[in-house]
Write a structure and sequence with these properties.
4-stranded parallel β-sheet; globular; isomerase; 40% helix; Asp/Glu_race; alpha/beta; 17% strand; Glutamate racemase
Amino acid sequence: MKIALMDSGIGLLAAAAAMRRLRPDVDLVLSSDPDGMPWGPRTPADLAGRALGVARAAAALRPDALIIACNTATVHALPAIRADLEPGIPVIGTVPAIKPAAAAGGRVAIWATPATTGSPYQRGLIRDFAAGAHVTEVPCPGLADAVEAGDADAVAAAVAAAAALTPADVTDVVLGCTHYELVEPAVRAALAERTGGADPVYHGSAEPVAVQALRRIGAAPDPGAPATGTLTVLLSGSEGVLPAAALRYAEGRLLAGEGAAAGSR
């Protein structure tokens, strides 16, 4: 079984690590675009073109499914990628976990990039799935870039700024960019100070997307399967290795086989 994941950069690590924990026997293909990143500032048409190229590079290795492990690429490129690859290769997009976060009708904070915050896309998700909750949209300028660079000081500064915009009585936090899940411990620590030690429920997309990909190909999670899965890294279409910044996160070390325990963050 082979599953491919794509993103402009290392935001795909969270979903890839979730897949590795769910199925240690799966072969993973990580397809990113260091030559074209970041995708966020690009026009929708340009972004869709870059994303389609990254998807086709992964598809050439004949995976059983492809996960678009990027919220922005899902918004702008999912239809084009599905039109190009399906039905031969099922394509799974990534949507912020607003619906489960709002299910209890609490006070929800959605951490997202400045471009996504307040966008028609995110407002539509809030309208459709969070009508019964009190929602605060929290822009996180610079956080995804800091995570991508593996810059701990910049991550800390961006997390602190976003935490200051988050209501102290928040009950649920949506990590609305795949990069943010890589620094969830830092987010938790900053918000623990903000909330006086109260522990909100955190909602990411990595594991749900991995489970959905397995479901689409008729497979099921099997964390006890033999750890025989391989890792292939594609960098703007050419085979390479995980970037150094990836190894600064537990998810990257897990995928590189450096002994990060299953479930550790």
